Amino acid sequence: MAIIGKNLETACELLIAGGVVAIPTETVYGLAGNALSEEAVDKIYTTKNRPKNNPLIVHISDINYLQEYVKSIPLAAVKLSEKFWPGPLTMLLPKGSPVIDGVTAGLPNVAVRMPAHPLTLELLNMLPFPLAAPSANPYGYISPTTARHVNKQLGDKIKYILDGGPCREGIESTIVGFDDEMAVIYRKGVITPDDIKKVTGSVKFNQNPEHKHITSGMSPSHYSPKTSVCLTGDINNLNITLPSENIGLLTFKNTFPITSRRKQIALSPKGDLAEAAKNLYEALHKLDSMHLDLIIAEYVPDEGIGIAINDRLIRAAHKIIAEENHINKK
Ligand code: AMP
Ligand code: MG
How far, in Å, is the centroid of ligand 1 from the Cα of 214? Predict the structure, then answer.
């Protein structure tokens, strides 16, 4: 198992030696390495078992570093960074020469973000390089939102987990690219399309199927527990044959009589979508460890941050019932 601690010097030493360290961010925990080192970037891919065609996000601590790693910055990107950094927004910008091809998987853009976690910002300030960091989970599995989640999933492969407590936001960053000055959303996240539109004046969703293929955050199956998940908009009218009585429920705010209370998790009993996002992955980790035969999950209201929660639920699900009725197709 890895060591879990708050020692920035230890994390620094391992990273400078070309190793990988799990780091906290406000979204999910990341598996970080030197973004300018082939060796470190290679280790990130092998530790996660992540396909090499799936690029990594580069984390910086100061907006002044942005121009070192990208060739040009649209005005819309400047405005978004002023509004949302540090924070859960990743921007795709033309890759500058110091960024190695391994980070971008040979793509012309590099994904950059300034995370809003004091420990990780301090760590970045101590290092002479930016950190490449995808989520600290084996490829395709549920993202980690605590140091314990990381240890359970990758503890036998890494030495150190920098413990910054449970992640405040709980789901991955919104990824935005640019079509000239038009903001294009590649992955839904904590920052909503409306939040972006307020800053840039316009926003659209990426429709390019080629890109959907390369972006894990957009692949149809991702963020999945090992237990089968069935997603529905109406738990009271389930039109499926249940495999047994050993069923778990993941609901927005209510409980239901179809299984024991012990096997039910409401993401936010008071009906708060931000709280639901924060609790989503912890709930999936918990239900996945209960040896259930099936997890039935319920859509949350498809508004604000609920849009991103539903996006993750759809990718986590193995079976979806009546999706059209409950989700605005975006
Ligand atoms: P993760 O950090 O595990 O959430 O994964 C990062 C996400 O950002 C993945 O879905 C990547 O495909 C996407 N991403 C990172 N860099 C790029 C890039 N240069 N172009 C397009 N998508 C990217
Ligand atoms: Mg990930």
Answer: 8
Is ligand 1 within 6 A of the CB of residue 100?
no
Our answer on whether the CB atom of 136 is closer than 6 Å to any ligand 1 atom is: no
CA distance 98 to 113: 16
User: Using omega within 30 degrees of 0 as the cis cutoff, is the peptide bond preceding 86 cis?
Assistant: yes
Q: Which has the higher per-residue pLDDT, 322 or 288?
A: 288
CATH number of the domain at 3-205, please?
3.90.870.10
CA distance 284 to 297: 10
| Number of separate helices (H) and strands (E) present in the chain | 12, 16
What DSSP element (H or E) covers 279? helix 273-288
Q: Indicate whether 330 pLDDT > 50.
A: no
pLDDT at 142 over 50: yes
CATH fold match for the domains 3-205 and 229-327: no
Which of 20, 31, 56 has most ligand 1 atoms within 8 Å of CB, for mutation? 56
214 lines ligand 1 (CB under 6 A): yes
Task: Decide: 61 in ligand 1 pocket, CB within 6 A.
Answer: no
Q: What is the pTM of this model?
A: 0.94
Give the pLDDT confidence of 63-83 residue by residue, as tens digits. Answer: 999 999 999 999 999 999 999
Separation of CA 59 and ligand 2 centre (Å): 14
Which one is predicted more confidently, 116 or 140? 116
Closest to 11 in 3D by CA, of 118, 124, 103, 112 = 124
Ligand 1 pocket, 27 CB below 6 A? no
Domain ranges in the chain are 3-205, 229-327
Ligand 1 proximity of 111 Cβ (cutoff 6 Å)? yes
**pLDDT tens per residue, range 245-267:** 999 999 999 999 989 999 999 99
Specify which residues 248 forms β-bridges with.
Answer: 295
User: Has domain 229-327 been given CATH number 3.40.50.11030?
Assistant: yes
| Residue 30 alpha carbon, nearest atom of ligand 1 | 2
